């Protein structure tokens, strides 16, 4: 039997930027509840809500100081309970984001750990002496720039932080830490939530002793010893046995640099770990030589290769993909893979069709259904994100000039996806009556406009969500890429017995000639489920328009 979530679509909410109910400029939980009818109209099954626990907000909630309470900026526990029951009333499930790799340095555990070397909380984190030559304990690099170690003056030892310096890594080797984490998961499961998105969950297990990374180059940042580490599958399996399984939860793990073979291990049902995983190889197709902070356009050949590999391998190994083209850490999909100036509508629909034809559970990030664009900030002061700021000053100190560095941020910054949701044509696009915490895009894209036009991107998503429920082939069909070498097109088929789905997408702003593969030429029994132009027929020879995309179902 297939699990229900294989046919489901998840909608990701970044609460800070979704909807502000009390005019303080910051989105909140009541703001989400107010928009449940909108989400129910779109037809999504599940909401993934990024962290709403108590937090100093150095990394917008991914730095948790109290796992058992709601951050006051976002509301109260009653607000959350109301959201949960109102969502359930509409048949929408809720998945909370859980960060177990690190806590904020404001967390009670860390505060106690910091007091002296002898208390039990010290071992909840990783501490190391200053090296004899005065340098940091090893060569690991923080994802937010600089060494992954911060000196604690009081005890004259370094603690490990793979992310921002106030996000101290938890020592999962310590059994009490693991028990505490299960308790946290149980607490939220007992509240009646339906699942978890597990933040950087492939990083929980580090090689004992924390040795230097032997790799030279951008990939030698320590991940050899902390990504998919020695005990990771044991840890996740235990979370499953204790919480996910008994509570029948759906889970998705974030797997930043994990390969397909490992992703299969995380998700193959009989291993009892996770329901599905996000992999990120297709998100790195605009990195120059593996480096994110570079001025580089995405490469379609690389995108096709990365996606095809995961489609084929995960199917073969009985794993399950979480499919996405953007999230709160990524630029806006239409700006990155499409053309947000001249073909915004067309290219956004093309991306939607391309993604929704694949095998896996589909994800929509807030505003993607309106084809919101990148922020195009013009000064560093407009940015809020700690990662972006760190990268900016790193670039300057590496001799990149200010103009170029700003251009790279316009392309790559996480704030591109974090500008407030654009609801209507009133003040601040309906996001807040106060001053928004991050600048709102200056364009005329709004949910109000989308809902009025039955040819809009919103309705494309709405239909795509439904097709995935109506046709089993989207879940069960095998995947095969066609004309892999075509430099403008991404074409693939799905097969299930005699049924076929053909997806033809033009990723360029040019007209492109294309010949239908032989075996499709005499197939007359088809429906064009979705297209972003007005094509009525599939022909042997077709001239595809700029960003044209067609989803055809053959029986
Ligand atoms: O992100 C994990 C991660 O690997 C990030 O480095 C992400 O890939 C990066 O921003 C892209 O360059 C997760 C969360 O999604 C992110 O928002 C948090 O900041 C991070 O973990 C730390 O908790
Ligand atoms: Ca608010």
From TrEMBL:
InterPro entries: GH, GH13_cat_dom, Glyco_hydro_b, O16G_dom_2, SusG-like_C
Pfam families documented for this protein: Alpha-amylase, SusG_C
Species in which this protein is naturally found: Clostridium paraputrificum
Protein family: Belongs to the glycosyl hydrolase 13 family.
Protein name in the entry: Alpha,alpha-phosphotrehalase
GO molecular function per UniProt: alpha-amylase activity
Keyword set includes Hydrolase: yes
All copies of domain Glycosyl hydrolase family 13 catalytic, residue ranges: 12-418
Keyword Flavoprotein attributed: no
GO biological process: oligosaccharide catabolic process
Protein keywords: Glycosidase, Hydrolase
């Amino acid at each position: 039997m297939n699990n229900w979530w294989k046919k489901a679509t998840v909608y990701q909410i970044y609460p800070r930027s979704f909807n502000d109910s009390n005019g303080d400029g910051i989105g909140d939980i009541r703001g989400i509840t107010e928009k449940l009818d909108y989400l129910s109209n779109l037809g999504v099954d599940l909401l993934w809500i990024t962290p709403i626990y108590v937090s100093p907000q150095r990394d917008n909630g991914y730095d948790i100081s109290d796992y058992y309470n709601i951050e006051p900026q976002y509301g109260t526990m009653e607000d959350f309970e109301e959201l949960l029951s109102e969502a359930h009333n509409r048949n929408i499930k809720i998945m909370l984001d859980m960060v177990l790799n690190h806590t904020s340095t404001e967390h009670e555990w860390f505060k106690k750990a910091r007091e002296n070397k002898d208390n039990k909380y010290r071992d909840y984190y990783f501490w190391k002496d200053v090296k004899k030559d005065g340098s940091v304990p090893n060569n690991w690099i923080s994802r937010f720039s600089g060494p992954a170690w911060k000196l604690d003056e009081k005890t004259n030892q370094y603690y490990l932080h793979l992310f921002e310096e106030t996000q101290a890594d938890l020592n999962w080797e310590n059994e009490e830490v693991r028990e505490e984490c299960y308790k946290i998961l149980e607490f939220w499961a007992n509240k009646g939530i339906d699942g978890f998105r597990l933040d950087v969950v492939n990083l929980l297990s580090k090689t004992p002793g924390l040795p230097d990374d032997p790799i030279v180059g951008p990939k030698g940042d320590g991940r050899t010893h902390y990504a998919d580490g020695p005990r990771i599958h044991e840890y996740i399996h235990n979370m499953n046995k204790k919480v996910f399984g008994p509570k029948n939860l759906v889970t998705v793990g974030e797997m930043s640099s994990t390969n397909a073979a490992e992703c299969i291990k995380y998700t193959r049902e009989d291993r009892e770990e996770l329901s599905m995983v996000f992999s990120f190889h297709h998100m790195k197709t605009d990195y120059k030589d593996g480096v994110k902070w570079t001025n580089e356009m995405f490469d379609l050949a690389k995108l096709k290769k990365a996606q095809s590999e995961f489609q084929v391998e995960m199917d073969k190994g009985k794993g399950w993909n979480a499919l996405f083209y953007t999230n709160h850490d990524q630029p806006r999909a239409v700006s990155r893979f499409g053309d947000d100036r001249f073909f915004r509508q067309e290219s956004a629909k093309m991306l939607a069709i391309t993604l929704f034809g694949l095998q896996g559970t589909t994800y929509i990030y807030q505003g993607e259904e309106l084809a919101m664009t990148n922020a195009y900030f013009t000064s560093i002061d407009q940015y809020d994100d700690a990662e972006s700021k760190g990268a900016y000053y790193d670039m300057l100190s590496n001799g990149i000039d200010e103009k170029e560095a700003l251009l790279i941020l316009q392309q790559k910054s996480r704030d591109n996806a974090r500008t407030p949701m654009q609801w209507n044509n009133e003040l601040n696009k309906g996001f807040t009556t106060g001053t928004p915490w991050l600048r709102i895009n200056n364009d005329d894209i709004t949910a109000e406009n989308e809902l009025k036009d039955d040819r809009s991107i919103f309705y494309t998503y709405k239909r795509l969500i439904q097709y995935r429920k109506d046709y089993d082939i989207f879940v069960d069909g095998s995947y095969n890429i066609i004309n892999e070498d075509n430099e403008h097109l991404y074409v693939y088929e799905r097969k299930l017995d005699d049924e076929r789905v053909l997806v033809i997408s033009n990723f360029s702003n040019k007209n492109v000639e294309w010949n239908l593969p032989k075996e499709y030429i005499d197939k007359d029994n088809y429906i064009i489920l979705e297209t972003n132009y007005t094509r009525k027929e599939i022909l042997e020879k077709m001239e595809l328009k700029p960003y044209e995309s067609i989803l055809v179902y053959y029986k």
